[in-house]
Write a structure and sequence with these properties.
about 270 residues, alpha/beta, 11 helices
């Protein structure tokens, strides 16, 4: 592991307090990277369970990991609109106002974090010098079934509690995650906020193609196979629409373990 730091910072962004860590060091100006995690996860969850080790990135980058509003140690309210992807993108830009006000950063995201990065980048592209879009979520017509599931999950939690939701959501992980320490990260959202978080996700989608085509930021899209929640169709769409984007697909756990070094090489290049 890369020596995960304890949370030592919080920053007020709008009506939320966002908790964040930093590790590594910037070997030269512009070497700050920010990690945006996935839905119901938290800043360091994937590293904690052995899914990723971002130490190749922290060797020459200052890496900021933050909890999205309502997740982990960050605060959030009851309005689902707070948790829509465009609003999470605004949160990220607000955090960058404090973390790196004068220099663009490298954005690395996972699932919901990938969506967060894209909404931030189409709003203020000058804030990013590289984008790494990991396991992009469902989008467009493919997203319809997940929207229904998010809304049903929110209703189930309010009706029967978190345990019932976790039982209903349980299922085998993609084969690409086999052999890792843990295939799934624990839910890092309070039960009282989780229905609002899910309903916010249900109201969300990726930016339109016309907005993505306008991006002029070096972009790496990392996808894994066999996961309907993070389909290759979205990854291929992003790699096709964003000018010059590269696509890398992992079909095996060994290929997945190569991602952190691949990201470090991409950022260095």
């Amino acid at each position: 592991m890369s020596g995960l730091p304890a949370f030592v910072h919080t920053t007020a962004v709008g009506d939320a307090e966002l908790a964040w860590t930093e590790s590594g060091h910037a070997v030269r100006p512009g070497r700050t990277a920010i990690w945006a995690h996935g839905l119901t996860s938290s800043a360091t969850a994937q590293e904690t369970v052995g899914m990723f080790d971002w130490s190749p990135v922290t060797r020459d980058h200052r890496l900021i990991r933050y909890d999205a509003r309502g997740h982990g140690r960050s605060t959030g309210g009851a309005d689902p609109e707070q948790y829509t992807w465009p609003n999470l993108g605004r949160d990220l830009l607000g955090l960058l106002d404090s973390m790196s006000p004068d220099e663009p950063v490298a954005g690395i995201g996972s699932s919901m974090g990938t969506a967060t990065l894209l909404w931030a980048a189409v709003a203020e592209p000058h804030r990013f010098h590289h984008l790494v879009l990991t396991t992009p979520p469902t989008a467009g017509q493919v997203r319809a079934a997940h929207v229904v599931a998010y809304r049903a999950g929110a209703d189930l939690i309010e009706r029967s509690g978190l345990a019932a939701y976790e039982a209903a959501s349980a299922g085998p992980p993609p084969a690409v995650l086999s052999g890792l320490a843990e295939a799934r990260t624990p839910i890092a959202v309070p039960e009282s906020l989780l229905p609002s978080v899910l309903r916010g996700a249900a109201r969300s989608d990726l930016p339109a193609d016309v907005e993505l085509r306008a991006l002029r930021i070096p972009t790496l899209v990392l996808a894994w196979s066999g996961d309907p929640g993070h389909p290759l169709s979205t990854a291929r769409r992003l790699a096709t629409v964003i000018p010059g984007a590269q696509l890398c697909v992992a079909d095996t756990p060994g290929q997945l373990r190569e991602w952190p070094q691949g990201v470090a090489d991409f950022l260095a290049g």
